[in-house]
Each structure stands twice: as C-alpha cells, then as structure tokens.
Amino acid sequence: MTERAICVIGAGLIGGSLMRAAEKAGRTVWGTAASADTAEQARADGFDVTTDTDAALRRAAEADALVVLCVPLPVLPEVLRRVDAVAPTCRLTDAVSVKVAVADDVARFAPRARYVGGHPMAGTSESGWAAGSATLFDGAAWVVAADDGLDLDVWRDLAELAWACGARVVPAAADEHDLAVARISHLPHLLAAVLAAVGAAGEDDLALSLAAGSFADGTRVAGTRPELVLAMCEGNRDALLGAVDDALGRLGAMRGALASTGGLAATVRAGHDGRQRWAAAREPQAVRVTLTGRAPLARLREIGRRGDVVVGWQ
Amino acid sequence: MTERAICVIGAGLIGGSLMRAAEKAGRTVWGTAASADTAEQARADGFDVTTDTDAALRRAAEADALVVLCVPLPVLPEVLRRVDAVAPTCRLTDAVSVKVAVADDVARFAPRARYVGGHPMAGTSESGWAAGSATLFDGAAWVVAADDGLDLDVWRDLAELAWACGARVVPAAADEHDLAVARISHLPHLLAAVLAAVGAAGEDDLALSLAAGSFADGTRVAGTRPELVLAMCEGNRDALLGAVDDALGRLGAMRGALASTGGLAATVRAGHDGRQRWAAAREPQAVRVTLTGRAPLARLREIGRRGDVVVGWQ
What we know:
2 copies of one chain form a homodimer. Chain A has 314 residues and is α/β, with parallel strands linked by helices. Chain A contains 13 helices and 11 strands. The first copy, chain A, has a 6-stranded parallel beta sheet with strand order 3-2-1-4-5-6, sandwiched between helices. A 3-stranded mixed beta sheet of chain A has the order 7-8-9. A two-stranded parallel sheet of chain A has the order 10-11. The first copy, chain A, is globular.
C-alpha cells in the first residue's frame, strides 16, 4: 500500500475521526477547521489543524496528498472555489452523504480536480471534533463512487484510506448510491418525523403517555438535529422524491383497503417480507479486486449491487 | 383490597402471564386454553386450566369472579355467546388492544354482563403460554375504560387486579383509547411495514446491504407476526383511518414541498418537536382516587388525559 498523505477539510465528527484514524494508521495528516476554537481543540489533541484553508490546500498540492472534504453540502461550493484556486488538480474526495450533488458541484467549481466521491456510512448522534474517534469507521461501509471515467489512481488512494480506517469499500455509481440511501436512510428520517408529528398531534397527553416500544423505535431518528437531516435529505432531492412517492403510493393503497374492505394484509405482509429479507441477508462476501484489465469500474459496481464489499487488492 | 377470584379465558402470552401474576398476588385463579396441549402445559406448571370454557365460566358465575377475556378479537363473539349462556351477568373485562370494537361485541353478544374494558399495554415479540411471565405487567400501563355508566364495582375489581399485577392504571374513554393507540401503536406498525417494503423494493441488493441504524429501527416492528398486527390494526379501523389520513396529509404536503421548493424544514422540525415533546414528558403523577362522589368516571378520564396514572384508593 502507498502511504499517501491526507488533507482533511473540516474537523467535525467525520473529519475529526478521519484525522485520528488516518494518523493511527501511520499516515501524514493535516487539516482545517471552520472555527479557531475547533482548530485549537484539535491542536491540543496533537493534530496539525489550521483555519487557513488555502495554506492546507497549498501543502496538499505540493505533497500530492488526497484532499478529503468533510464539510456540509451547503458549504461545498465555497471550499471547491479555494481548491480550484490553490490546488486545482489535486486528488480529491469527500464524505458527504449524497453523491450526485457533490459531483455536480465539483464539475462546476473545481473541474480540474481528480475527484472520486466517497461516503463513509458511520456516525453517532453527536457532532463536532470532541465527539470524534479513531474507531468510528471500524467495520463500517465506505461507499466509493465507481462511475466510468474516474481516475483509477485516486480510486486506489481512497480505497486504501478506507481500509486503513477499518472500513469496507462498497463500490457504487453515484446515482445508484443516492437512490439506495434515499430508501434506507433518508426516507426513514422523514417517516420518523411524520410519525412523531402525528403522535404529538393529540388534543391531550393520553397518546404520548401511552407511547412506548413501536413509537419509541419508529421515531428515534426524529431526535437527530434538524439541520443535519435537512442537509442530508434536501441534498438528495431527486432520488428522495422517488422513494417518497413509493411510500405515498403504498400508504395510499393501504388507506384505500382499510376504508373499503378493512383489510391490511397486503401492506403488513409486504412489510414483514421486506424486513425478513433484510434480516436474512447473507454476510457480504469480502472480495479482492484489481484495477487493471477491461472495465474495472463496471466490475466494481457489480460487486456493490450484489451487496458485497471490497477489502483489498488481488 | 378485595381478593376477588379471577377466571382467565385464553392462556396465551397475556392470559398466561395474568394467571401467573394474579396467583403470585394471592388470588384464586383458574382459566381456559383453546388447545389441549396448552392446557396440559399450564397444568404441568401448576395452574388450573381446562379446555372446557363452559365449566370455567359456570365456576365464575358461582364465585362471582372477574372474568378476563384474553383471546384475539376475531374469537370474541364465540366466547361472548358462551358467557351469555353460562354466566350472563358476570363481572367481565378483557385484554384486547382495541376497546370500542370489544364493547360493541359485548353489547351485542353478552349484553347483561357487567363489563369494564381493559388493555394491559405489555407484550413481547413472543406468544403462547410458555412465553408468559408473572412480571410481564410490572410498571406497565393498564388502560381501564372509564366511560359513563360503567359498573363502579367492577371498575374497582379491575383496578385492583392491575395493581396486584404491578401495573399502573390509565383511565380512558374507550374511543379516546382507540384514537390514542391508533396514533402511537397501530400507525407505527403500518409505517414500519411501508418503510420495509420500500427498502426491499430495489432492483439489486445495494440498498439493503447499506441499511443500518435508521432503517433497522424504523422497521423493527415490521418483524412482528403479521396475524398479530392485522388483528390489532383491523380491529381499530375507524380510529386508524384518522391517524393514517393525518400521516398521508403530512407526507403529501412534504412531497409537495420537496418537489416545489425542495424544502423539508416544516416536516423535519415538526417531527423533531414531537419526538422532543415525547422524550421530555414529565413522569406521570401517581394519583389516588375515590369512586364515590359526583361523576367519578369523568374525574378518572381527566387523569388519563393529563398523562397521569391511578395507583390506589384515596
């Protein structure tokens, strides 16, 4: 494996955890924070973190480091403009939870960067540098974009960084990633919000006082900070519309059945089957791959579609 | 407290737990099981359980015992016909998760019974006699119907049985109970089913392989046995339609906002507020009451509406 240096833009939960994990794996790591407070905290913990984004990016250009953008989606254009000004052809990835919108931003604001999108699927309910941990990515899925035309050399860098952090690589086309997370991550947040709002809509406190198991589980992620949920869901608008329409269609059909025949069997059985299918999924197969030969990215995408993971080179 | 004898019809999870808890509390307990196998299991555990419903009910009539129906809603009419034939004026309650439909059945099939509806809100994912436990009701809410005109003497019996089992009594009108559980118990099951079906609807295994936290929590109750969910939800059709329409309206409005402005703030913030309101609810106040004086049942209903519980007599 190469020991490529890592420049992390943004020292929150994900960026801060990435710095810790990469340093623990022996990489040279530096980064930036949006506030002087956070930079000072990180420096007190022994990390090379500055608020001077240009300086960090200049160093990345000189060292041919992999730049990892760990900032919220709305801040990306501003950061990408600095990339284009200071390190225009750098090796570039990100940790944002949507992939098409980020790729569009990169194409627009830093079109010369050698960009391969990423999405480490790890997190806690907390945020900020202090909440970070070198073990956050242990055993997690790290989606690595595998669209045709990507720079294979940067793909290799990113896969090796993910493995160094203890994660497993799931290759996926950017749009397929966005459709998948719309269904299994963004829609759950929106249905939890709807359920919590309906549960709290009663005229008195009887309903909420009786709420327990099914309501507690079904609304748990409605407790997430609204800004995080909004950044995530609103950034995935197109894919999310499809998932919401699917849910609306099923809920509407169920409403019709309840009102007419009173029967809910179709809904309940389809849900039970879906949950069983998820619970019964086999362990992902751990695959070793090569980036040489014909259509390596197409082969990688097939691995992700099968539900398998990439763990090393052949 | 009186030490009223208890006749439990149905020796499944709830009925079996009730027999164990009531006997542990020093009550005289006998009951029935639908199958000879279950009756034999219960007898092997030292309980007086028969498959002869008429014999058990005859004994209840002679002893003026409290009869507790712990059978699924679809079986109720048949059991109530036996009540009307053998113990027509008995003290009667039930443990079914809807209250209006049961009251309607009682009025139709056993109209002379002294009936007060009940709903002990306890359960596990398992079922059957063997899954029962004397501690199942410890700390649980036991909703006791508090509609005007109910027999106060039977109300007292049922409250004292609930307390003897370690539960706290939540008084509520039958229709208010049904509206509340539609929102916080039945709707969660239906949204979980919709989410599980959408998550499993992808063309390949990428989405399910990435599903974790929010999907796992949001679909947990979709793993419940479909027959149990159907009996519960279909028996609460009218109240459930209102809750489903509320959810559909919110989801549809959110769909419109996502498609037009792309903004989800109203949905996400309302959900966050609802979850916070539930999580921040104060501990229920433990109230002691009297059944004498003016409008005792109206006073009881107010306690439930405030989110408080009844724990004993004044």
